[in-house]
Amino acid sequence: MSMKGFDHGNRGIGIRNHQLILPSVVCSTRVSSRIAKEMDAITFAHQHGCGFIGNDVGRITDFFAALANHPNVSSTLIVGLGCETLQGNELADKLLTKNKSTNYLVTQESGGVQGTVNSGVAAATELKAKYPTPQVVLPRLHLGIDLSDDNIKVDEIVSAFTEVGVDITVAASHKNSGLNFSDLMEAGVHVILSFPDKNQPPSGFPLIPTINVASGSPLHMAISQDFDLSADSSPEEIMEKINSVVNGELTKVEAIGAGEIIAGREVRSV
Asked: In what residue span(s) does the D-galactarate/Altronate dehydratase second domain sit (predicted)?
């Protein structure tokens, strides 16, 4: 497999060149969305960063750090509010120890929403200019497999990819693909091959191209055009699709900008 990549320094070599606009708290997700739209960057909405306690503070901090340090990320701009539990500057300090292509801003110190958007676009533009991303050859692919459908057997697929030098991580702890995707993100996979539960539609993870394989369920048959591969796809066809996606072809969910990022929590709080 001949694979193109992007050299993201200490993050590693990725197969996508995404700038991440990371809201450190739920209150800054709308502002982050406006900045990301201006910059053609990746962001996501979440319910974290404020009003959470115990192990979740460290858990969410580590999860956000894993997002920002993922090999498919070129640079990260953290957007905070100023009064949250998880302070953006503290998260930025944690990230800067590994990757200098990180910056942060605070809404309460930027003159409000529009001021933060303006400052954010300027900061994100500066990050892109200061840390250009050279294209290189990806030396080794890390494939993640989401097994939300526990009836699927992937031994043949795993064997075929292992034989050609692909590293593989399988996530099967959840019936929800979104939670499995998060586990795979923290493992640092480049691309995800997803076998969603028969009652679950195709989905994706914004930072990581996700190839959805349909089952033969009535739901999947009814929306078959939303899947990248059919239930009867051979390992060779799957390998060909992965090679195309690694080299730039958009998956179905990438093409429409779909997908979500879910951070699991232990404590149910506000």
From this structure: 5-128
Give the count of domains, the chain. 2
CATH classification of the domain holding 127: 3.40.50
Domain membership flag for residue 268: no
Q: Assess whether 146 and 97 both reside in one domain.
A: no
Look at residues 135, 161, 196 and tell me which one is the last residue of a structural domain. 135
Sheet holding 167-171, edge to edge: 167-171, 142-147, 191-195, 210-212
Q: Give, for all 270 residues of the chain, the pLDDT tens digit.
A: 679 999 999 999 999 999 999 998 767 788 999 999 999 999 987 666 555 545 666 678 888 899 999 999 999 999 887 655 555 667 777 777 888 888 887 766 777 788 889 999 999 999 999 999 999 999 999 999 999 988 888 999 999 999 999 999 999 988 899 999 999 999 999 999 999 999 999 999 999 999 999 999 999 999 999 999 999 999 999 999 999 999 999 999 999 988 888 876 555 544
Q: Can you tell me the distance from the alpha carbon of 20 to that of 92, in angstroms, rounded to the nearest whole number?
A: 13
Question: Which residues, listed in sequence order, are joined to residue 33 by a DSSP beta bridge?
Answer: none
**DSSP β-ladder status, 191-195 and 167-171:** unpaired
Q: State which residues form the domain around 39.
A: 4-135
